[in-house]
Amino acid sequence: MKKNEIIRLEITDISNLGSGVGRYNDMVVFVPQSAVGDVLDVRILKVKKNCVYGKIENIITPSKDRVSVDCGTFFKCGGCVYRHISYESEAKLKENAVAQTVKRIGKVDMKPNPIVVDSPLRYRNKAQYPINQNYEVGFFAPHSHRIVPCKDCLLQPEEFYKITTLFEEWCKTTNQTVYNEESGKGLIRHLYLRKATVTNQIMVCIVINGSALPQSETLIEGLKNLLGDNLKTVVLNINTEKTNVILSTKITVLYGDGYIYDELRGVKIRLSPLSFYQVNHTMAEKLYKKAEEYAEPENKRVLDLYCGAGTIGLSLHKKAKEIIGVEIIPEAVKDAEYNAKINNINNARFICADAANAAKALKEEEIKPDVVIVDPPRKGCSEDLLEIIANDFSPERIVYVSCDPATLARDVNLLSQKGYELKEYTPFDLFPSTSHVETVALLVQDK
Ligand code: SAH
Question: What CATH number labels 126-264?
Fold first, then answer.
């Protein structure tokens, strides 16, 4: 196969990254935005040793999963991978993908519970928009840092569209300079927005390559007029590093107190701009409820590892005897401690440390949790940590909340060698239209 050649291909599968997959003369061909059952003419874009990448030239026979696309930027934007198939088929696809991964990497042949879903539209409460030299905000194209202008993303709350429009206009009229990734020059890097789903409070954060934002008063005035009391805080994030990482740790408050306040499963939650918070509030509540069901925390000492602002652990405070949360980001730990206080929760404490180090310290103090909940980032848990959990704490139950089925499956396999058996697991679609999927798994001690 050569670049630019056109081949006829049937799509038989979808990769974990959401690309359609077909086979041509024993070669695997990846075709983004295709669907299982499509027969396509595909233009070859890139030939690698083991696989080929192509794009749709013509749809000969469409898959029965296809629906009409509702977003003008879908074909250019790196955000969504599924807007061309029905939400039902997307959800099924994710459920199957989690099951396959648990079987292949976790070596457990067990059906998951049916995937839990909610509305696939406007489910996010957070956006980070890069901005181009024409003062257009948007999202990056796939595998690139080219900005695809998009003010109104269908995954975001409607207010964000109003804010991005106002922000673009303000940048233009005040003649702001926009950051250029190559030269490292220019001031405005990103517009970062957060909305509290229950209270409707909004945080506006402008990420800048400098120490101050000229004419910020007029921006704040405009935002106040636009959002009224829902505008809770405006902050700057000072990021002068030449890096792809969006946020630095340096925050300057321009308006309000620097926080927004939400509610999750009846618990008031304060959030700093740097604290992790699930982007899909409705689904996070369902996910945490399932985590509680799996944990059976009644009168137990619960260890909530990778706890962020304390969300999961604090939601168990009425049932659990004691909650110990562990989190590595100091601002998130401060939020967690504050959240315990404003909710009059007296049976929770938090440790700011790496999860494995905190576990070691607890072991040395001979503090043994009865239940362990882990909710690590994509890379999963370290083997050190799993070792201490399984061998030293040896709780009856381990509840594993995961945003990456592959590392979940790897850790399920490791835990199975340390005496824990996967009892059941449930996928949750926290991120409709993207390739991501969340899973919560219950592991119990082999008897
Ligand atoms: N359970 C929380 C947060 C989950 S996200 C919630 O549901 O909201 C994962 C969290 O792990 C993030 O807050 C991240 O800062 C934290 N983290 C990442 N690496 C860590 C480590 N090595 N030790 C402890 N926490 C870590």
Answer: 2.40.50.1070
Convert the pLDDT of each residue in 98-116 to its tens digit.
Answer: 999 999 999 999 999 999 9
Task: Give the active site residues.
Answer: 403
Q: Do domains 6-66 and 91-119+280-445 have the same CATH topology?
A: no
CA dihedral 283, 16, 310, 338 (to 10 degrees): -90
CA of residue 5 to ligand 1 center, whole Å: 46
Total-model pTM: 0.95
Contact criterion met (CB below 8 Å) for 371 and 297: yes
Provide residues with CB under 6 Å of ligand 1: 276-278, 306-308, 311-312, 326-329, 332, 354-355, 375, 377
Coarse DSSP helix, strand, coil percentages of the chain, rounded to the nearest 5 percent: 25, 30, 45
Tell how far the Cα of 375 is from the centroid of ligand 1, in angstroms: 7
Structure tokens, 126: 């957070």
Query: Can you give the residue ranges of every domain in the chain?
Result: 6-66, 91-119+280-445, 126-264
- The hierarchical CATH code for the domain 6-66 is 2.40.50.140
User: pLDDT tens-digit profile of 204-228?
Assistant: 999 999 999 999 999 999 999 999 9
Q: Tell which one of 126, 272, 306, 385 to mutate to probe ligand 1, the residue whose CB is within 8 A of the most ligand atoms.
A: 306
